[in-house]
User: Which sequence fits this backbone?
């Protein structure tokens, strides 16, 4: 059996990000959800079995570097990345 494809959803606790995470989770993808608010990520993880979460931001270059380092260690590589924020 092959491993599930992996998707990173940035902005996963917003309306669009939640919807994408939900659809991909139900389609059998391994979903890594990223958002700034840990409590909202925890609530999303309770709703979606197997969801992996990472608190982080891309608001500044420094924030993005911290997030990228954390994801390289814990979750990469990804088959797809979705940015669901403005």
Assistant:
């Amino acid at each position: 059996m092959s491993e599930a494809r992996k998707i990173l959803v940035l902005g996963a606790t917003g309306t669009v990000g939640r919807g994408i995470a939900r659809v991909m989770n139900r389609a059998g993808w391994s979903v890594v959800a990223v958002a700034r608010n840990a409590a909202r990520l925890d609530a999303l993880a309770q709703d979606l079995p197997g969801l992996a979460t990472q608190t982080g931001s891309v608001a500044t270059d420094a924030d993005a570097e911290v997030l990228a380092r954390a994801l390289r260690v814990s979750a990469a590589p990804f088959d797809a990345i979705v940015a669901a924020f403005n």
Observations:
- The helical segments are 15-26, 38-47, 61-74.
- The chain has a mean pLDDT of 94.
